[in-house]
Amino acid sequence: MSENGASQTTTLPDGRLVHCVNAYEVGFGWHEISSDPLLTSSFTFPPGAYFDVGANIGLFCIRLRDLCPAARIFAYEPMPAAFAALRGNAAGLGDDVLPIQLALGAAPGDAVFEYFPGVTALSTANPAVGRALAQGLRSLLSGAASDDVQAIIAKTGAQHRQGDPDFLDGLFRAETIAAKVETLAGEAQRLGVDQIELLKIDTEGGERAVLDGVGPLWPRIRQLLVEVHGGAQERDVFAAELVERGYKVTSDDHPLAHGGAPVFHLYARRS
Q1: What CATH fold (topology level) applies to the domain 3-270?
Q2: Which of 37, 78, 173, 270 is the most buried (most CB within 10 A)?
């Protein structure tokens, strides 16, 4: 991992340079985003406002910019090291990508996060989810991943170091970090956003709180991509709620589900 969480750079498979905290995280994250067939088959990408909640280093922002060069992207990431990389990547995407160092939730306030310097994408305000995701990643490293994901992991060399206790201790060591929280409704009002073309939520167990903070914005959100970390039952509850709000909903497994972590994607689009 990068020393003291300092930003470093690596390249995507197409050669584009990206800022990151850990170069070995980028391949897995980019594969998940760029190879998602439902992202392009379920959604449309007209010009307008896009909200990336739980943006980490900004890989989804890069993908959105590829899909919609005219998108205005508001990217939320509360963890300082990941936000520094996000800010670097946003700078390369133009003025219409705004990185914001906040968590979004059900009400304004503060939250305490478990931040994983070795795997920043696991960082969460829900410790139970963090443990489940860490166990799922351990399983993937031991060979439970699909062939394409295993090929990505192989490029990092991580699976060869699974027996190295220093590597694993560093990979899954957590730090406590406090962060400010606002609601999506409040942020949209502050930013002057009347319509959201796509709301993407990837908050490692905080998705319920983010959805509870939507409030009066619901009729003005056209599409949602929600990563659900509470298992199949929570996925079904969220799906039913979205259907009641007028969305057509489909779902798919997250790659970590193959390692035993109960993670799913929900894709919701208004008829």
Answers
A1: Rossmann fold (3.40.50)
A2: 78
